[in-house]
Amino acid sequence: MVIMPHPDDETMACGGSIALHTKAGTPVTILCGTLGEMGRNMGNPFFANRETLPTLREKELRDACAILGTTDVRLMGLRDKTVEFLDPEWLSGRIRDEIEAVNPSLVLTYHPLYSVHPDHMALGAAVIRAVAAMDPAKRPAVHMRAFGKGVETLGPADLVVNVESVIDIKMSAIAAHRSQTETMFAKAAQDPALREQMNRQRSSENYWIQKF
After folding, report:
1. Which of 47, 64, 122, 158 is deepest in the core (most CB within 10 A)?
2. Helix extents (H) in the chain
3. Burial of 36 by CB count in 10 Å (0-12 exposed, 13-18 middle, 19+ buried)?
4. Which DSSP symbol is given to 90?
5. pTM (2 decimals)?
6. Residue 159, strand partner residues
7. Which residues pair with 107 in a beta bridge?
8. DSSP labels, 54-84
9. Residue ranges of the chain with per-residue pLDDT less than 50
10. Left (φ > 0), alpha (ψ -120 to 50) or beta: where does 56 sit?
């Protein structure tokens, strides 16, 4: 189960891991907190506006997840850029209900301190609270993606997943989030070195394992 706050987080952060699991026959559920309706990117040139962006980003999310091998996409209906202001107990309880309904063996999410965006960190913290409140015999493992300023204080990642074998799938799923990534791919198309760098940077996914 992958629990992330915005469309494209699931692919950018964990797309390779998702593809590896689905190719191995493991079902993957995506739980997305918001529709990223406050995002600043609307295509280049623009093909979305503030009114149409939520619907567009939901479609991009579903298209990307289908490329990654799953159609089990669930929406929490939270408002973009407000996750940090929600009641923590309500949010963790809501997430716990979702986790218990799916009964996964593994949850992938963001680190609650080292994942840059307030929505990332708030949702990651809620996932950890939700799992901590579960019966220990039924708790899934929680693997967290961390990046950005200060991440070096965590030390080396507990798990490094090599996703080179599915990099084409991951990059196709990233491209499906067209409103957010079209400019990036346009630049890479004109610069083979940049394209190679993009693939190389996304060929592994580092995780820190939450201990309960």
Report:
1. 64
2. 9-23, 53-68, 88-102, 118-132, 167-176, 178-189, 192-201
3. buried
4. H
5. 0.96
6. 207
7. 142
8. HHHHHHHHHHHHHHHT---EEE--PPTT-GG
9. none
10. alpha
212/197 Cα distance (integer angstroms): 37
**How many CB atoms lie under 10 A from the CB of residue 135?**
7
For tokens 């993606």, what's the residue?
Answer: 145
Fill in the amino acid letter for 42: M
CA quadruple 50, 32, 63, 23: dihedral, nearest 10: 160
Residue for token digits 């990332």?
Answer: 120
Please write the tens of the pLDDT for every residue from 33-44.
999 999 989 888
Beta strand 73-75 with 30-32 is parallel
| List of domains in the chain | 2-209 (3.40.50.10320)
**pLDDT tens for residues 177-191?**
999 999 999 999 999
